[in-house]
Amino acid sequence: MSEESLNESVEADAAAAEKRVGALGRIRERAKARRSTAIAWRVGITIAGIVLVIAGLVMLVIPGPGWGAIILGIVLLATEYVWAQRVLHPVKRGVSKAMELGRHPKVRIALWVLVVLATSALIGFGIWYVYRYGLSWDGMRAIWASVRTTVSGWFGG
Known about the structure:
This protein is mainly α. 85% of the residues lie in helices and 0% in strands. Helix 1 (3-19) packs across helix 5, helix 3 packs antiparallel against helix 4 (66-78) and helix 4 packs across helix 5 (82-102).
């Protein structure tokens, strides 16, 4: 996609967003009515967006929805900054393609089969575990020890 068509797409998205006026749009318009509240609004959005992006980066390392927080932060920043809209544009395109792919009947069937197989395997493991070890943690200790020795054998440890 060329730079010119990307700019046109971003401008079209911005124009469409301006036409959508909901509760948040009314709050935003009221905040931007005066210069002091407009600056406070923009600073607040900027701080909230940056905090979300930083929290998302942290959550990439620790458990949590890292990519979700990063994208949400960029979406928030895109309400005020054109550069964030440009960053967000490929994400929008990717989500649209994924949604389109998800609507395909063969893909939906394959995903359902995968979910049923994974659920069946998990239930089967649970039944096997209770049959073999009862309702104790002894089996998990044995399984974990077996996994650790297997993995350390792979790496020569």
